[in-house]
Amino acid sequence: MTGAYFAAAPCAFCNIVFGFNPERVPSIPLNAWRIAEIITEGGEPPEPLPNVPICFDCLVKINRLRMEEGFDPITPLEGAYEPAEGFPP
Ligand SMILES: [Zn+2]
Asked: Which terminus in the chain has less CB density within 10 A, N or C?
């Protein structure tokens, strides 16, 4: 027997709820901005909180900015925005 499932959560950037494969979606720690601020200030960063997902529309915008800054775009894993096969772990 086969199954499929997906997770739904608000995007880390736009806060819109979307569906995704929880094992493949790109994500960042919930406190990523705070960690970046503290590192920029030269301080000791806190432990990262659990990761939050990034929706496809925001990933496109992030990649546009990354390429403008000379960084490689982030390539999501195949199936990141599709239901996962099988059953939740
Ligand atoms: Zn988003």
From this structure: N
